[in-house]
Amino acid sequence: MRIRFTNEYGGSPLLIGGARVAILSPEGQIVPGSDRTVTFGGATSAVAPAGAPMLSDPIPLATKNFERLRVSLYLPGRTGPCTCHMRGGELVQVSPPGDWTRRPLPPASGVEAYRAFISRVDVETGLGSSVIVALGDSITDGVSSTIGANRRWPDLLAERLAARFPQQAFGVVNAGIGGNRLLGDGRFSYQGQSALSRLDRDALSVAGASHLLVLEGINDLGRSEGRPTPSELILGYRQLIARARAAGLEVIGATILPFEGAAYFTEQGEASRQAVNAWIRRSGEFDAVVDLDMALRDPDRPARLRADLQSGDWLHPNDAGYRAISDAIDILMLR
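User: That's the sequence. What structure does it adopt?
Assistant: Structure tokens below.
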């Protein structure tokens, strides 16, 4: 495997004083014999330039499907602004000062659910493989799913693929960012750059990427000012399609989910959602379409999610809703 560390939002160089990776048991303990030192050009430390990632050397550690990893990172100096995944859906523990990568951590005084300075793990496989990149917002990020249980829809999709095609290797890369938009950058830095801005970094640069599954647009429609028109959103989708196809990926479009009842719902936003969804379904411009609107909407009130599939804010699905998203995807088109 190879780990991609990141200082891509940083304004100054980031000193990585040391890093280790290990496989975790289902109980959260390090599997004996799996603990490895991470190196960079043979060295145990490295400096990630401002605005850049830092790839580790290949790490000789064999893994099975769905094994959990623990990555321990020692940052001896000031880091500046964190290049963080603020809603990573997993717990992180911050140690007292000092290098704890080779020592058991003391009892945590508190834990958070973000991921810091780590963006991706690539795994080498000798099997024929497909790599699906899920580009989206908080619904792809898995907001409101159970923390630490891997119940985001990309996780569930990976489980379906592995069960259906045990002789083929699949990678499902979650490139969702809470608050993300198709056209505009987020109001806050942790909401990320627009999908159009981050496409090359977060999707097209993924090793072995073969498919791009796009679920974006709900936060564009919820904007209080400068809400894009359906034509502007469609132009954005066309840009994603053209750029991904130029990189050799098949592009799958997902219809935007209902959001009546959400804090930023408006009738104007709903009218635009209907227009954009009609284009996604009928234009033929995507290589394939997943109709998530149809799969999760209330048949008696189609502008709203089914009550049993939403988390309480009428915007984000619950665990059952994320399962419904995964189940709506025809996995035969991902081979």
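The longest helix spans residues 230-246.
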